[in-house]
Specification:
Blueprint (H helix, E strand, L loop, with lengths): L2 H14 L3 H12 L9 H9 L1 E5 L6 E7 L5 E5 L10 H9 L3 E5 L14 H15 L5 E6 L2 H9 L5 E8 L6 H11 L3 H15 L8 H5 L3 E10 L7 H10 L3 E6 L11 H22 L1
Parallel strand pairs: 3-4, 3-5, 5-6, 6-7, 7-8
Antiparallel strand pairs: 1-2, 2-4
Length: 290
């Protein structure tokens, strides 16, 4: 156990001697804190060169960055935990070249957001606000990385949308294992852990145990789902994507060896496969329109 985690575990245990509620509240807030990584040079450049503007939301002002033809099919792009919108710039470039209109934004607590913490509910509210502002007049597509798959599936399953393509650059299966990991790392008591899980359910308006990506995707109306995942991913197990593909329709899994969880976003082989998928699906749509 890391020193900081050991100290936190002692602190939480001390608080719980007086109030389990206070200990649970503290831990729940801790779970929502983000630690955004330092931006790379090309990411800084993307922020500086891409078209962008600000919209108001109930959470905070959100800067929307766009790439491509405004008259093209909209693609909403959601980054992962402790990441930022510019991490998806290579995919935005490919999509823009194929005539899509890419819409990117930093989720609260990430990128250039002024917030220091976030959660699924807050991210979902912002995603809904962005979709409402863009207001696609026809079917749209969605691309996500990591945690973004949970934000997208949770949000879209609560609304009635017609989606063209879904692109998941790895996928989160469910939250419950992360709560259990938190319990082990901080040596939390069952009382505190159960209270935290209940707090999460109250926040999201459904039990944490039901927050399963594959079940949310089953509720969606979409044409194709393409998943890209490293077999040796150390952050989100490859088995998550295998499970999703095995249970939802029109899904295909692209597998890789040792390209990492975040580094995969710059991997040439993956980007080449992604471009081919986009081109193929676009050609099929054009043939249907003839």
């Amino acid at each position: 156990m890391k020193t900081i985690e050991l100290l936190l575990s002692y602190y939480i245990k001390f608080i719980s001697l007086f109030s389990v509620k206070s200990a649970s509240d503290f831990t729940f807030k801790l779970f929502q804190k983000t630690q955004p990584r330092t931006m790379l040079v090309d990411e800084i450049e993307f922020y500086a060169t891409a078209k962008h503007y600000t919209i108001s939301t109930t959470i905070e002002p959100i800067e929307i960055y766009t790439k491509g033809d405004k008259n093209g099919e909209v693609v909403f792009m959601l980054h992962g935990w402790n990441s930022n919108l510019a991490r998806l710039s290579s995919f935005a470039e490919i999509l823009a070249e194929q005539g899509f209109y890419c819409v990117l934004f930093d989720m609260p607590g990430h990128g250039k957001s002024t917030l220091k913490s976030t959660n699924l509910k807050v991210n979902s509210i912002v995603f809904e606000a962005v979709m409402e502002h863009i207001n696609p007049q026809s079917e749209f597509s969605v691309l996500t990385h990591s945690f973004g798959s949970m934000v997208a599936s949770y949000t879209l399953a609560r609304n009635n949308h017609t989606i063209n393509q879904l692109f998941f650059l790895t996928t989160l299966n469910q939250f419950e294992p992360f709560f259990k990991e938190l319990k082990n790392r901080l040596r939390l008591s069952d009382k505190i852990m159960n209270r935290i899980i209940d707090m999460g359910g109250d926040l999201l308006e459904e039990p944490v145990q039901q927050l399963i990506v594959k079940e949310k995707v089953k509720k969606l109306t979409y044409k194709n789902l393409s998943i890209f995942h490293d077999k040796h991913d150390k952050i989100l197990p490859y088995s998550y994507s295998e499970l999703l593909v095995s249970e939802v329709p029109n899904a295909r899994l692209f597998s890789y060896e040792n390209i990492g969880h975040s580094k995969m976003l710059q991997n040439e082989d993956l980007l080449a496969d992604f471009e081919q998928v986009v081109k193929k699906n676009r050609e099929e749509v054009q043939l249907q329109d003839v």
